[in-house]
Amino acid sequence: MNDITTREDVEYLVKEFYDRVIKDDLIGFFFTDIAKIELNHHLPKMYNFWESILLGNPVYEGQPMAKHFPINDIVAMEEKHFNRWLQVWEKTIHDNFEGENAENAITRALNIARIMHLKMTNARNH
Length: 126
Fold this sequence. Notes:
Blueprint: H1 7-21, H2 28-34, H3 39-55, H4 64-74, H5 79-96, H6 100-124
Helix pairs in contact: 1-3, 1-5, 3-6, 4-6, 5-6
């Protein structure tokens, strides 16, 4: 298996991840029922987000944290949800890639999940 080194790799990873996560029995509903994401609109943003993080190309513009607060107001995003998101992400990576960027993608996702979980919990407690 190859490492994540190109935009095409990032797009493949993100698409595979979303194919899996929207079907997940624990968290899929966040994407399909609560956020009601339109994949044709959402995926290019996620491609840019992860390309910026993993390849260092500053192509992402936006406020990813802000997009999640309204979802959290409808249904609390709990630790179990972030853990599952991470499990699906890590499995998707390990099924398709190996190398430094692949491992970095897992580490960065873990950090993002920790920060997001903290912010979502704090938002519910205030």
